[in-house]
Structures are given as structure tokens and as C-alpha cells.
Amino acid sequence: MAGHLFIISGSSGVGKGTLIKEFLKQAENVFLSVSSTTRKAREGEVHGQNYYFVSKEDFQKSIDNGDFLEWAEFSGNRYGTDKNRVCDMLNLGKNVLLEIEVQGAKQVKQKMPEAVLIFILPPSKEELERRLRGRGTETEEAIQKRLQVIEFEAKESEHYDYKVVNDTVEKAVGEIMDIYKKKTEE
Ligand code: 5GP
Fold this sequence. Notes:
alpha/beta, five-stranded parallel β-sheet, 7 helices, 9 strands, globular, binds guanosine-5'-monophosphate
């Protein structure tokens, strides 16, 4: 039996990383796909674990070879999902989770309409703004820019099958688990 494909997207600062980590602890038979990116590794990130960090040239070669299930440009860098790695897993009956942004999710949904798309929303725009300011690391201009991206992404979330509001980690992970169980036990 083929596995199911899940996609989780969400604006930056919404806490999707924490939710995914918790979800992967609780859910069985699901594997997180490791993407390729042209962005530089951040401190602590490991090649092959967080991402495959590749050169712009190699990324372009993969595009030309048709290796990607989807790819997109985000914040000046490119990110892509390897088609064969995902399809091999699905064919083995394993469920696969992609943590990708909205343009890529749209491409996957077009190719694989059965993919389950989940969008993580902040409790409210005000709360997200408070969290972004709370970090104290960004200028007002940078915050305004992020809020604009967030508004755009919230609009894009209309194409998603499910929206999960991250008001508490426990509740949000519970909702993701319910979606996962419903789909995999169908
Ligand atoms: P970051 O640079 O913060 O790790 O990721 C930036 C954005 O790229 C996030 O929204 C993340 O979900 C998205 N992303 C990561 N991998 C992929 C991918 O393979 N494809 C697409 N379309 N987006 C990705």
C-alpha cells in the first residue's frame, strides 16, 4: 500500500518547527523529507539532516534534470524537494512530511491532489507581531516586511486542506495528530 504525503507550511515565527518536532515524536511511520537549499547553513545545522546545502550551480542542474517534485525561491534562496526520495518512501508504504512554503505546496497539490496540506496560523496577527517584537532582534522595517509576507501567506492558506492555530503546542499538535490519524487510518 502506498503511503500518504503531508505538507506543513506556516509563516516564520509561528512556531512550526516546534510543532513538527513534537508531531514526529508522537506519530508512527512518518518521515520528514530533507530538502536541498542554496542558502548557507546556520550555526548548528547539519548537511543531510537539516538540509542538503548545495551550490547554485548544482541546484540548477537538479532543476534541469527534473529531479525536484517542487522547488521555490524564498528570501533570495532556492529550496527544493527531491522527487525520487519522496516517491520511494511513499511506494514503500511510508508516510512523508514536507515542511515547505506556500509556492512549493501549490506545485505538489497540482501534481498530487491527494496530498494533505496543513497551514499553521498564529493565534492572531497581534500575537505574532508581539512575538516578532519580543525577539528584539529586528528593525521596525524588517518587522513590517515580515508582517506583509505573513499577510500574503495567510491569503495563500486558502488553498490548504486544514488550518491549525498554534495557540498552545499541545493543542496544535493534537489537531495535527487527529488529521494524520484520520488520513492514515482511512
Ligand atoms: P529556512 O531558510 O528558514 O530554513 O526556510 C525558509 C522557508 O523555506 C520555510 O518557509 C521553509 O518551510 C521553506 N522550505 C524549506 N524547504 C523547502 C523546500 O524544499 N521547498 C519549498 N518550496 N520550501 C521549502
